[in-house]
Write a structure and sequence with these properties.
mainly alpha, 4 helices, 0% strand, globular
């Protein structure tokens, strides 16, 4: 997976427009061979319980995901 692919998955999750229902879960649960993407995936994995839950999402975790998208798009 490229950094652009990862940014797209995170952005789609944030805008509730995933390509399929489990796209986000597949991303956070699947280790990546690209070391850069893997580092970001691990960050997302840590944030997942705060953003992928019933009820409200944690605003700080959502902001962190937006920062991750910006970082990935800047690479």
């Amino acid at each position: 997976m490229s950094v652009d692919d990862a940014a797209g998955i995170i952005e789609r999750f944030l805008t509730d427009s995933s390509l399929y229902p489990q796209e986000w879960n597949d991303f956070v649960d699947t280790p990546q061979q690209n070391g850069v993407v893997e580092g970001y995936r691990k960050r997302c994995y840590q944030l997942d319980p705060l953003v992928n839950r019933p009820g409200g999402q944690d605003p700080g975790a959502l902001a962190e995901l937006r920062r991750i998208v910006n970082e990935l798009q800047s690479r």
